[in-house]
Amino acid sequence: MLDDFLLRAVLAAVGAALAAAPLGVFVVWRRMAYFGDATAHAAVLGVALALASSLPIFAGTLAVALVMALTVAWLAGRGHGADMVLGVAAHGALAFGLLAVSLVEGPRLDLESYLFGDILAVTKADLAVIWGGGALVAALILTRWGRLVTATVSEDLAWAAGIDPRRERLVLMLALALVVAVALKVVGALLIGALLIIPAAAARPWSRTPEGMLAGAATLGVASALGGLWAAWVLDTPAGPSVVCAAVVLFALSVVTGRR
User: Fold this and answer.
1) Residue 229 CA to chain centroid, in angstroms?
2) Three-class SS string for the chain?
3) What pLDDT score does 105 carry?
4) What does the alpha-carbon distance between residue 140 and residue 146 come to, in Å, rounded to a whole number?
5) Matching Pfam families, A to Z (predicted)?
């Protein structure tokens, strides 16, 4: 059954959307959109390092994304402005990544697939990585849900409850790095941030509880993935950007109907 490339694409898109949904709500609540972009841009450098060292692409992107997350967390903890750190990290990582890819022989022609995704070329091994990574993220969020929500609502409240908000923020950053590595094949480094943010933002006008927003983000993320793939198949457009466009349409509908 998995020999059908279209079925593999659907499973990959749904898996990436479900992996991104739990973190997307925290990205929106904590206003960490720029951090998601910085980590995603670092994935390009991970691709170059993986190609140069003959490592799996997932291993290279995950390693660099983790280093980026830890570096940003360390610099922010040293008193540097978060906006400044993320701005330097996002643009610097992308520039060094593009430069590194240009110096590696062979993969230059495939750069577009790493930037915008190549979901129709997903393999069975890629599916295992996407769904395995998504399961890890889901387990992490499920086991730490209360702590993460408390630390997001108020750091003072978290300290009073015996929760270290710095640790919870680091957990989120590391989980974001994992999602970036998982979703790279689906939507590419330049569009991963959109997969994290837009479904969660679309679910927000209709949500009354944190759990409701999480469920709404997951539902809209899956709808965006399926709608984008359908549009790509019918209109012969790139699959990754089509998924993001579908998410934007759902966000616009949510904003308009939510206000009414």
Assistant:
1) 18
2) CCCCHHHHHHHHHHHHHHHHHHHHHHHHHHCCHHHHHHHHHHHHHHHHHHHHHCCCHHHHHHHHHHHHHHHHHHHHHCCCCHHHHHHHHHHHHHHHHHHHHHHCCCHHHHHHHHHHCCHHHCCHHHHHHHHHHHHHHHHHHHHCHHHHHHHHHCHHHHHHCCCCHHHHHHHHHHHHHHHHHHHHHHHCCCCHHHHHHHHHHHHHHHCCCHHHHHHHHHHHHHHHHHHHHHHHHHHCCCHHHHHHHHHHHHHHHHHHHHHC
3) 64
4) 11
5) ABC-3 (PF00950)
- Residue-level pLDDT at 106: 57
Q: What does the alpha-carbon distance between residue 235 and residue 19 come to, in Å, rounded to a whole number?
A: 27
147/168 Cα distance (integer angstroms): 7
pLDDT tens profile 194-221: 888 899 999 988 888 888 999 999 999 9
Cα–Cα dist 113/193, whole Å: 16
Q: pLDDT digit string (tens) for 227-258?
A: 998 988 888 888 888 888 999 999 999 988 86
Other beta carbons within 10 angstroms of residue 84's beta carbon come to: 11
**CATH superfamily of domain region 5-189:** ABC transporter involved in vitamin B12 uptake, BtuC (1.10.3470.10)
Domain ranges of the chain: 5-189
Residue 207 neighbours by CB under 8 Å, 6+ apart: 213, 216
